[in-house]
Amino acid sequence: MPKTYKNPPLLEAVCEFRFDTENINSVDQITNFYETIKALFPVQKKGKMSQLEVKIDMEKTPEENRKNISQDFYEFEQYYSSDEKYSVQLDGGRVSIHRIRPYTSWSEFFPIIQTVRDAYIKSFNPKSVGRIGIRYINEMVLPSLDFSFADYFHLEASIPSLEVNSRQSIFLGSVYEQNGGNDAIKVQFADKQQGDIEVKAFVLDLDYFLAKPIIQLDALDEWLIQAHTNIESVFEGIVTDKTKVIFDA
Amino acid sequence: MTTLAMDNYFGYIGLDNVLAPSAYERTWNRSLVAPFLPSSKSFSARIDTALAFLLSKNVFIEERLLLEDILANNSGIVAHLYDVPTKVAEYFKTNSIEFGVFSDPDSNDTPEIYFEIETNLSPEEANSQLSLLNREWILSSSDEDLAKLNFTLKFV
Predict the structure, then answer these.
(1) What predicted TM-score, i.e. pTM, was given to this entire model?
(2) For A163-175, how does the pLDDT look when each residue is reduced to its tens digit (9 = 90+)?
(3) Which residues of B touch A57 (CB under 8 A)?
(4) How far is CA A119 from CA A38, A122, A123, in A?
(5) A48–B76: do the CB atoms touch at under 8 Å?
């Protein structure tokens, strides 16, 4: 049974599939895909991503190469739920399902993931899946008065010659193998410089993903459930009971 | 000649010196082997990168957590944030900008974002430039998200 909190610290949950497709998505396929998910995602908006192209000529100086930087935008499909808290991004072989704050639960999120994924497979007929990722980005805002890091997090990052309590800022990042090396989890933890001295804010970014493309298209549910269980146990292991009390307040 | 095409932003190199999770992640990712390199794309990282870009352009950010919340709920604004420093410099010849949130505590209206431009132009000239910026950039576009950018003036 997945753990739920009254005020979960989740900033954004993402489930992303990168499928291997033979052809570029046709307009008919995109229309068919959208018709299948339209009841859940009635709001349609174009997403815009800036793309930077850098042309590097080894025989030129850095200043000359700097002139070869060009910026362009490309657009991709975005669909939103009526309250715009859930959304889908469709960009070639990449389809992702997003939930922004306030997060409700995995038991609500998972069926939505299934619907979008099934619609993608039916509409675009991908050959295989190259990468799947479940990413949970948490933002934890904690009182700064008498703050002690160890009270809130089971994380170690110390330097022998330096006093732990004198630390002003922290960035941590690690990648761990999971599931016998078939999967991996990227854990990133950082404090957020946000300007309010009354609080301390930390970002805990957990990205669990398929590191080897060996999952069959009919075995995605099993992978997703296991991935969520694993990511949840990492999260639960990092935050202390004192932090969990804040999430349940 | 090597060509690198990436989802990224003008001023990319400048981001590495900015204290923000996105800047840290970029530096770290360069050292990872291919299977571990790409993260699932998220709104949050896109917002963080945009704010890191503004910081690298010396934009002062006020009430960051609230600002991020508004951007998460209005994600179409994010791509436009990259144009703000250039546009302000073009019309006001300054890079002194504050980016924040204003809300009326007596109303239930949704908080809005603002860019406060610090200028030493005369009030007449500054207002004229502001009108030009709005007319030539914001109002000439059919993009509804662009209309959510509000510009105010601070005279120094």
Answers:
(1) 0.87
(2) 888 888 888 989 9
(3) 1
(4) 11, 5, 6
(5) yes
